[in-house]
Amino acid sequence: MNEIITHKSINQERSQLINRALVADLLRQEGVCSRATLAQLSGLKHATITNIIGEFIECGLVVETGLMSGCKGRRSIGVTLNDDLYKVIGIRMTRRAFYISIAGLSGKVYAVEEYPIGPRDDVQNTISRIRNAIQDIRRENSSTHIPAVCMAMPGAYREDRDQLLFVTELSGWQNFPIKKALTEGFDIPIYIANDANASAFAQLWYRSKEYGIRNMIYVLAGQGIGCGIITDGKLVLGQCGIAGEFGHNTINYRGALCECGNRGCLEKYCSTLALRSRIRERLAAGEASKLQADALSTEALAHAVAQGDPVACEEYDRVCEFLSIGITNLINQLNPGIIVIGDELAEIAPDRMLATVRERVKESVHTLSPGEVAIEVNRLPGSPVLLGAAAFAAQSVLADPGKLIQEAAVSQEISSAPLELAAQ
User: Fold this and answer.
1) Which residue of 48, 57, 67, 419 has the smallest Cβ count within 10 Å?
2) pLDDT tens across 75-119, in order?
3) Which tens digit of pLDDT belongs to each residue from 219-240?
4) If DSSP codes are grouped into helix, strand and coil, which group holds residue 260?
5) What does the H/E/C string look like for 11-76?
6) How far apart are the first and last CA of the chain?
7) How far apart are CA 274 and CA 182, in angstroms?
8) How far apart are CA 182 and CA 131, in angstroms?
Protein backbone atom coordinates (compact mmCIF):
# COMPACT_ATOMS: atom_id res chain seq x y z
CA MET A 1 0.00 0.00 0.00
CA ASN A 2 2.83 2.40 0.88
CA GLU A 3 4.44 1.71 -2.52
CA ILE A 4 1.18 2.57 -4.29
CA ILE A 5 0.89 5.83 -2.37
CA THR A 6 4.54 6.66 -3.10
CA HIS A 7 4.18 6.01 -6.84
CA LYS A 8 0.97 8.05 -6.94
CA SER A 9 2.71 10.94 -5.19
CA ILE A 10 5.66 10.79 -7.60
CA ASN A 11 3.33 10.77 -10.61
CA GLN A 12 1.42 13.75 -9.24
CA GLU A 13 4.63 15.68 -8.67
CA ARG A 14 5.83 14.84 -12.18
CA SER A 15 2.52 15.92 -13.71
CA GLN A 16 2.64 19.12 -11.71
CA LEU A 17 6.18 19.84 -12.91
CA ILE A 18 5.25 19.16 -16.55
CA ASN A 19 2.08 21.26 -16.38
CA ARG A 20 3.78 24.23 -14.75
CA ALA A 21 6.62 24.15 -17.28
CA LEU A 22 4.13 23.90 -20.16
CA VAL A 23 2.14 26.92 -18.99
CA ALA A 24 5.29 28.97 -18.32
CA ASP A 25 6.63 28.25 -21.80
CA LEU A 26 3.29 29.10 -23.43
CA LEU A 27 3.32 32.44 -21.63
CA ARG A 28 6.84 33.02 -22.94
CA GLN A 29 5.76 32.24 -26.50
CA GLU A 30 2.49 34.17 -26.42
CA GLY A 31 3.66 37.23 -24.50
CA VAL A 32 0.28 38.22 -23.05
CA CYS A 33 -2.36 35.54 -22.77
CA SER A 34 -5.69 34.87 -21.04
CA ARG A 35 -6.33 31.87 -18.84
CA ALA A 36 -8.89 30.60 -21.34
CA THR A 37 -6.34 30.74 -24.18
CA LEU A 38 -3.76 28.96 -22.02
CA ALA A 39 -6.29 26.17 -21.36
CA GLN A 40 -7.00 25.90 -25.09
CA LEU A 41 -3.33 25.85 -26.12
CA SER A 42 -2.20 23.46 -23.37
CA GLY A 43 -5.15 21.09 -23.34
CA LEU A 44 -5.31 21.42 -19.57
CA LYS A 45 -8.54 21.95 -17.63
CA HIS A 46 -9.55 25.51 -16.77
CA ALA A 47 -9.31 24.67 -13.05
CA THR A 48 -5.72 23.45 -13.50
CA ILE A 49 -4.76 26.62 -15.37
CA THR A 50 -6.40 28.76 -12.68
CA ASN A 51 -4.43 26.99 -9.95
CA ILE A 52 -1.11 27.25 -11.82
CA ILE A 53 -1.55 30.92 -12.66
CA GLY A 54 -2.52 31.54 -9.05
CA GLU A 55 0.77 29.98 -7.94
CA PHE A 56 2.69 32.00 -10.50
CA ILE A 57 1.10 35.27 -9.37
CA GLU A 58 1.76 34.37 -5.73
CA CYS A 59 5.51 33.98 -6.32
CA GLY A 60 5.68 36.97 -8.68
CA LEU A 61 6.54 34.98 -11.81
CA VAL A 62 3.42 36.29 -13.55
CA VAL A 63 1.43 39.53 -13.36
CA GLU A 64 -2.02 40.41 -14.63
CA THR A 65 -2.11 43.02 -17.38
CA GLY A 66 -5.76 44.04 -17.35
CA LEU A 67 -8.69 43.25 -19.59
CA MET A 68 -8.16 41.90 -23.08
CA SER A 69 -10.49 40.76 -25.86
CA GLY A 70 -11.38 37.09 -25.83
CA CYS A 71 -13.27 34.70 -28.07
CA LYS A 72 -16.94 35.36 -28.86
CA GLY A 73 -16.54 38.97 -27.75
CA ARG A 74 -15.87 38.04 -24.15
CA ARG A 75 -13.34 40.05 -22.21
CA SER A 76 -10.80 38.37 -19.98
CA ILE A 77 -7.81 39.30 -17.83
CA GLY A 78 -4.45 38.90 -19.50
CA VAL A 79 -1.38 37.50 -17.76
CA THR A 80 2.29 37.78 -18.69
CA LEU A 81 5.72 36.87 -17.33
CA ASN A 82 6.98 39.40 -14.81
CA ASP A 83 10.26 40.74 -16.23
CA ASP A 84 10.31 43.46 -13.58
CA LEU A 85 10.87 40.88 -10.85
CA TYR A 86 12.80 38.11 -12.62
CA LYS A 87 15.71 38.54 -15.01
CA VAL A 88 18.61 36.37 -16.14
CA ILE A 89 22.18 37.07 -17.23
CA GLY A 90 23.63 35.89 -20.53
CA ILE A 91 27.37 36.00 -21.24
CA ARG A 92 29.22 35.57 -24.51
CA MET A 93 32.92 34.82 -24.44
CA THR A 94 34.97 35.61 -27.56
CA ARG A 95 38.67 35.79 -28.28
CA ARG A 96 38.82 39.58 -27.99
CA ALA A 97 36.03 40.50 -25.56
CA PHE A 98 33.24 39.17 -23.41
CA TYR A 99 29.70 40.51 -23.51
CA ILE A 100 27.06 40.45 -20.79
CA SER A 101 23.32 40.92 -21.26
CA ILE A 102 20.43 41.27 -18.84
CA ALA A 103 17.21 39.75 -20.16
CA GLY A 104 13.75 38.98 -18.84
CA LEU A 105 12.29 35.49 -18.72
CA SER A 106 10.22 36.65 -21.67
CA GLY A 107 13.38 36.86 -23.76
CA LYS A 108 13.42 40.64 -23.94
CA VAL A 109 16.95 42.05 -23.65
CA TYR A 110 17.24 45.08 -21.37
CA ALA A 111 20.97 45.85 -21.46
CA VAL A 112 24.20 44.68 -23.12
CA GLU A 113 27.74 45.59 -22.05
CA GLU A 114 31.05 44.86 -23.80
CA TYR A 115 34.24 44.12 -21.85
CA PRO A 116 37.39 44.10 -24.03
CA ILE A 117 40.03 41.44 -23.31
CA GLY A 118 43.62 42.62 -23.54
CA PRO A 119 46.70 40.56 -24.41
CA ARG A 120 47.65 40.41 -20.72
CA ASP A 121 44.24 39.14 -19.57
CA ASP A 122 44.80 35.46 -18.84
CA VAL A 123 42.00 33.03 -18.02
CA GLN A 124 42.08 33.66 -14.24
CA ASN A 125 41.98 37.42 -14.70
CA THR A 126 39.15 37.21 -17.22
CA ILE A 127 37.10 34.87 -14.99
CA SER A 128 37.59 37.31 -12.12
CA ARG A 129 36.35 40.19 -14.28
CA ILE A 130 33.27 38.19 -15.31
CA ARG A 131 32.49 37.35 -11.67
CA ASN A 132 32.85 41.01 -10.68
CA ALA A 133 30.55 42.04 -13.53
CA ILE A 134 27.90 39.56 -12.37
CA GLN A 135 28.16 40.88 -8.81
CA ASP A 136 27.89 44.47 -10.05
CA ILE A 137 24.74 43.63 -12.03
CA ARG A 138 23.15 41.97 -9.01
CA ARG A 139 23.94 44.98 -6.82
CA GLU A 140 22.62 47.43 -9.42
CA ASN A 141 19.41 45.36 -9.76
CA SER A 142 18.82 44.63 -6.08
CA SER A 143 15.03 44.72 -6.48
CA THR A 144 15.19 42.08 -9.22
CA HIS A 145 15.72 38.36 -8.67
CA ILE A 146 18.36 36.81 -10.95
CA PRO A 147 17.81 33.03 -10.65
CA ALA A 148 20.24 31.86 -13.38
CA VAL A 149 23.27 32.79 -15.49
CA CYS A 150 24.59 31.16 -18.65
CA MET A 151 27.91 31.74 -20.41
CA ALA A 152 28.41 30.71 -24.05
CA MET A 153 31.94 29.64 -24.95
CA PRO A 154 33.66 29.07 -28.30
CA GLY A 155 34.90 25.51 -28.69
CA ALA A 156 33.83 22.10 -27.44
CA TYR A 157 32.88 22.11 -23.74
CA ARG A 158 32.38 18.89 -21.75
CA GLU A 159 30.09 19.57 -18.82
CA ASP A 160 30.88 16.25 -17.09
CA ARG A 161 34.56 17.22 -16.93
CA ASP A 162 34.09 21.01 -16.73
CA GLN A 163 36.60 21.36 -19.55
CA LEU A 164 36.89 23.27 -22.77
CA LEU A 165 38.50 20.55 -24.86
CA PHE A 166 40.03 22.76 -27.53
CA VAL A 167 39.58 26.25 -28.84
CA THR A 168 41.67 28.23 -31.30
CA GLU A 169 43.23 31.59 -30.38
CA LEU A 170 42.13 31.48 -26.71
CA SER A 171 45.26 30.57 -24.78
CA GLY A 172 44.92 29.14 -21.27
CA TRP A 173 41.23 28.24 -21.46
CA GLN A 174 41.65 24.68 -22.67
CA ASN A 175 41.03 22.19 -19.82
CA PHE A 176 40.54 25.04 -17.33
CA PRO A 177 37.66 24.35 -14.85
CA ILE A 178 35.50 27.24 -16.06
CA LYS A 179 32.28 26.44 -14.24
CA LYS A 180 34.00 25.75 -10.91
CA ALA A 181 35.89 29.02 -11.09
CA LEU A 182 32.79 31.02 -12.05
CA THR A 183 30.37 29.57 -9.51
CA GLU A 184 32.59 29.49 -6.42
CA GLY A 185 30.85 31.45 -3.67
CA PHE A 186 27.78 32.26 -5.78
CA ASP A 187 24.29 31.21 -4.68
CA ILE A 188 22.83 31.04 -8.21
CA PRO A 189 23.42 28.39 -10.89
CA ILE A 190 25.76 29.29 -13.73
CA TYR A 191 25.52 27.19 -16.88
CA ILE A 192 28.13 26.81 -19.63
CA ALA A 193 27.08 26.34 -23.26
CA ASN A 194 28.81 26.13 -26.61
CA ASP A 195 28.35 29.34 -28.64
CA ALA A 196 26.97 27.59 -31.74
CA ASN A 197 24.48 25.65 -29.59
CA ALA A 198 23.44 28.89 -27.89
CA SER A 199 22.87 30.49 -31.32
CA ALA A 200 20.78 27.54 -32.50
CA PHE A 201 18.75 27.64 -29.29
CA ALA A 202 18.12 31.35 -29.83
CA GLN A 203 16.65 30.63 -33.27
CA LEU A 204 14.38 27.98 -31.75
CA TRP A 205 13.33 30.19 -28.85
CA TYR A 206 12.61 33.38 -30.77
CA ARG A 207 11.26 31.77 -33.98
CA SER A 208 9.43 28.79 -32.48
CA LYS A 209 6.29 29.26 -34.56
CA GLU A 210 8.05 29.33 -37.95
CA TYR A 211 7.86 26.38 -40.32
CA GLY A 212 11.02 24.28 -40.45
CA ILE A 213 12.63 25.77 -37.34
CA ARG A 214 12.22 22.51 -35.38
CA ASN A 215 14.71 20.85 -37.75
CA MET A 216 17.37 23.43 -38.36
CA ILE A 217 21.11 23.95 -38.20
CA TYR A 218 22.79 27.15 -37.13
CA VAL A 219 26.22 27.57 -38.71
CA LEU A 220 28.39 29.88 -36.65
CA ALA A 221 30.99 31.26 -39.04
CA GLY A 222 33.33 33.59 -37.21
CA GLN A 223 36.81 33.27 -35.78
CA GLY A 224 36.02 29.56 -35.59
CA ILE A 225 33.44 27.38 -37.35
CA GLY A 226 30.81 25.34 -35.54
CA CYS A 227 27.16 24.46 -35.72
CA GLY A 228 24.21 23.94 -33.43
CA ILE A 229 21.75 21.25 -34.48
CA ILE A 230 18.02 21.28 -33.69
CA THR A 231 16.13 18.04 -34.41
CA ASP A 232 12.42 17.67 -33.66
CA GLY A 233 12.57 20.85 -31.60
CA LYS A 234 15.44 19.68 -29.39
CA LEU A 235 19.10 20.63 -29.29
CA VAL A 236 21.36 17.75 -30.29
CA LEU A 237 24.28 17.51 -27.84
CA GLY A 238 25.65 14.01 -28.45
CA GLN A 239 27.08 11.48 -26.01
CA CYS A 240 29.55 13.90 -24.40
CA GLY A 241 27.75 17.17 -25.15
CA ILE A 242 30.11 18.23 -27.92
CA ALA A 243 28.07 17.55 -31.07
CA GLY A 244 28.30 20.13 -33.84
CA GLU A 245 32.07 20.63 -34.08
CA PHE A 246 31.87 20.44 -37.85
CA GLY A 247 34.57 23.09 -38.21
CA HIS A 248 36.96 20.27 -37.39
CA ASN A 249 35.80 18.02 -40.22
CA THR A 250 38.80 17.33 -42.45
CA ILE A 251 38.45 18.57 -46.04
CA ASN A 252 42.15 18.20 -46.89
CA TYR A 253 43.96 15.33 -45.20
CA ARG A 254 47.31 16.87 -46.15
CA GLY A 255 46.25 20.35 -45.12
CA ALA A 256 47.42 22.72 -42.42
CA LEU A 257 47.78 21.39 -38.88
CA CYS A 258 44.89 22.48 -36.67
CA GLU A 259 44.99 23.13 -32.92
CA CYS A 260 42.68 20.12 -32.46
CA GLY A 261 45.41 17.82 -33.77
CA ASN A 262 43.89 17.08 -37.19
CA ARG A 263 45.05 18.37 -40.54
CA GLY A 264 42.98 20.28 -43.06
CA CYS A 265 40.07 21.15 -40.76
CA LEU A 266 37.30 23.17 -42.39
CA GLU A 267 37.80 26.19 -40.13
CA LYS A 268 41.43 26.49 -41.30
CA TYR A 269 39.97 27.51 -44.67
CA CYS A 270 36.78 29.46 -44.01
CA SER A 271 36.97 31.27 -40.67
CA THR A 272 37.57 35.01 -40.36
CA LEU A 273 41.02 34.12 -39.00
CA ALA A 274 41.73 32.26 -42.25
CA LEU A 275 40.32 35.14 -44.29
CA ARG A 276 42.52 37.73 -42.58
CA SER A 277 45.58 35.49 -42.84
CA ARG A 278 45.14 35.06 -46.61
CA ILE A 279 44.59 38.79 -47.12
CA ARG A 280 47.73 39.65 -45.14
CA GLU A 281 49.75 37.21 -47.26
CA ARG A 282 48.56 38.92 -50.46
CA LEU A 283 49.20 42.39 -49.06
CA ALA A 284 52.70 41.34 -48.01
CA ALA A 285 53.28 40.14 -51.57
CA GLY A 286 52.55 43.66 -52.78
CA GLU A 287 49.12 43.17 -54.34
CA ALA A 288 47.07 46.34 -54.76
CA SER A 289 44.26 46.76 -52.26
CA LYS A 290 42.50 49.42 -50.22
CA LEU A 291 42.96 47.24 -47.14
CA GLN A 292 45.73 47.65 -44.57
CA ALA A 293 47.28 44.57 -42.95
CA ASP A 294 46.92 46.04 -39.45
CA ALA A 295 43.32 47.22 -39.95
CA LEU A 296 41.27 44.19 -40.99
CA SER A 297 38.22 44.71 -38.82
CA THR A 298 34.86 43.28 -39.86
CA GLU A 299 33.78 46.77 -40.83
CA ALA A 300 36.89 47.35 -42.96
CA LEU A 301 36.44 44.01 -44.73
CA ALA A 302 32.74 44.71 -45.33
CA HIS A 303 33.54 48.12 -46.81
CA ALA A 304 36.27 46.70 -49.06
CA VAL A 305 34.00 43.94 -50.40
CA ALA A 306 31.21 46.45 -50.99
CA GLN A 307 33.64 48.68 -52.91
CA GLY A 308 34.75 45.78 -55.11
CA ASP A 309 38.30 45.57 -53.77
CA PRO A 310 39.76 42.60 -55.73
CA VAL A 311 41.78 41.12 -52.86
CA ALA A 312 38.87 41.39 -50.41
CA CYS A 313 36.30 40.05 -52.89
CA GLU A 314 38.41 37.13 -54.11
CA GLU A 315 39.38 35.98 -50.63
CA TYR A 316 35.86 36.42 -49.28
CA ASP A 317 34.44 34.38 -52.16
CA ARG A 318 37.09 31.76 -51.48
CA VAL A 319 36.10 31.26 -47.83
CA CYS A 320 32.42 31.16 -48.84
CA GLU A 321 33.23 28.39 -51.31
CA PHE A 322 34.86 26.35 -48.56
CA LEU A 323 31.96 27.04 -46.22
CA SER A 324 29.63 25.71 -48.93
CA ILE A 325 31.44 22.36 -48.81
CA GLY A 326 30.74 22.04 -45.10
CA ILE A 327 27.11 23.10 -45.45
CA THR A 328 26.56 20.61 -48.30
CA ASN A 329 27.86 17.84 -46.02
CA LEU A 330 25.51 18.95 -43.23
CA ILE A 331 22.51 18.85 -45.58
CA ASN A 332 23.42 15.38 -46.86
CA GLN A 333 23.87 14.04 -43.35
CA LEU A 334 21.09 15.70 -41.36
CA ASN A 335 18.35 16.76 -43.81
CA PRO A 336 17.46 20.06 -42.08
CA GLY A 337 14.55 22.29 -42.99
CA ILE A 338 16.53 25.49 -42.44
CA ILE A 339 20.22 26.39 -42.45
CA VAL A 340 20.98 29.71 -40.72
CA ILE A 341 24.45 31.21 -41.15
CA GLY A 342 25.56 33.79 -38.65
CA ASP A 343 28.40 35.59 -36.89
CA GLU A 344 31.33 37.64 -38.14
CA LEU A 345 31.89 36.02 -41.55
CA ALA A 346 28.23 36.37 -42.52
CA GLU A 347 28.17 40.01 -41.42
CA ILE A 348 30.82 41.05 -43.96
CA ALA A 349 28.65 40.57 -47.07
CA PRO A 350 25.53 38.52 -46.28
CA ASP A 351 23.94 38.73 -49.74
CA ARG A 352 27.18 37.78 -51.47
CA MET A 353 27.69 34.85 -49.10
CA LEU A 354 24.13 33.60 -49.58
CA ALA A 355 24.43 33.73 -53.36
CA THR A 356 27.64 31.67 -53.27
CA VAL A 357 26.44 29.11 -50.74
CA ARG A 358 23.05 28.59 -52.37
CA GLU A 359 24.59 28.15 -55.80
CA ARG A 360 27.21 25.66 -54.61
CA VAL A 361 24.68 23.68 -52.57
CA LYS A 362 22.39 23.53 -55.58
CA GLU A 363 25.25 22.13 -57.66
CA SER A 364 26.42 19.64 -55.04
CA VAL A 365 23.30 18.20 -53.43
CA HIS A 366 22.12 15.96 -56.25
CA THR A 367 20.11 13.16 -54.71
CA LEU A 368 18.16 15.37 -52.29
CA SER A 369 15.91 18.32 -53.02
CA PRO A 370 17.96 21.45 -52.28
CA GLY A 371 14.88 23.61 -52.83
CA GLU A 372 13.36 22.12 -49.69
CA VAL A 373 16.20 23.47 -47.54
CA ALA A 374 15.95 27.17 -46.77
CA ILE A 375 19.42 28.73 -46.48
CA GLU A 376 19.51 32.15 -44.88
CA VAL A 377 21.67 34.44 -42.78
CA ASN A 378 20.79 35.24 -39.21
CA ARG A 379 18.03 37.82 -38.87
CA LEU A 380 17.63 37.97 -35.11
CA PRO A 381 18.58 41.39 -33.72
CA GLY A 382 21.85 41.60 -31.86
CA SER A 383 24.09 38.62 -31.15
CA PRO A 384 22.38 35.20 -31.43
CA VAL A 385 25.06 33.78 -29.11
CA LEU A 386 24.20 36.32 -26.41
CA LEU A 387 20.46 35.86 -26.99
CA GLY A 388 20.89 32.11 -26.75
CA ALA A 389 22.93 32.29 -23.55
CA ALA A 390 20.18 34.32 -21.87
CA ALA A 391 17.55 31.97 -23.34
CA PHE A 392 19.38 28.96 -21.87
CA ALA A 393 19.33 30.62 -18.45
CA ALA A 394 15.66 31.61 -18.77
CA GLN A 395 14.69 28.12 -19.96
CA SER A 396 16.33 26.58 -16.89
CA VAL A 397 14.00 28.70 -14.75
CA LEU A 398 10.82 28.20 -16.78
CA ALA A 399 11.41 24.43 -16.95
CA ASP A 400 10.86 24.20 -13.18
CA PRO A 401 8.80 27.14 -11.84
CA GLY A 402 8.22 25.09 -8.68
CA LYS A 403 11.60 26.28 -7.38
CA LEU A 404 10.45 29.90 -7.50
CA ILE A 405 7.16 28.93 -5.86
CA GLN A 406 9.01 27.17 -3.02
CA GLU A 407 11.47 30.04 -2.56
CA ALA A 408 8.61 32.55 -2.39
CA ALA A 409 6.78 30.39 0.16
CA VAL A 410 9.87 30.14 2.37
CA SER A 411 10.46 33.88 2.08
CA GLN A 412 6.83 34.53 3.02
CA GLU A 413 7.10 32.28 6.08
CA ILE A 414 10.22 34.09 7.27
CA SER A 415 8.74 37.54 6.75
CA SER A 416 5.49 36.63 8.52
CA ALA A 417 7.19 34.96 11.50
CA PRO A 418 7.48 36.87 14.83
CA LEU A 419 10.65 38.95 14.98
CA GLU A 420 12.20 36.90 17.77
CA LEU A 421 11.66 33.64 15.82
CA ALA A 422 12.97 35.10 12.56
CA ALA A 423 16.13 36.16 14.34
CA GLN A 424 16.86 32.66 15.61
Assistant:
1) 419
2) 789 999 999 999 999 999 988 899 999 999 999 999 999 999 988
3) 999 988 999 999 999 999 988 8
4) coil
5) HHHHHHHHHHHHHHHHHHHHCEEEHHHHHHHHCCCHHHHHHHHHHHHHHCCEEEEEEEECHHHCEE
6) 40
7) 32
8) 6
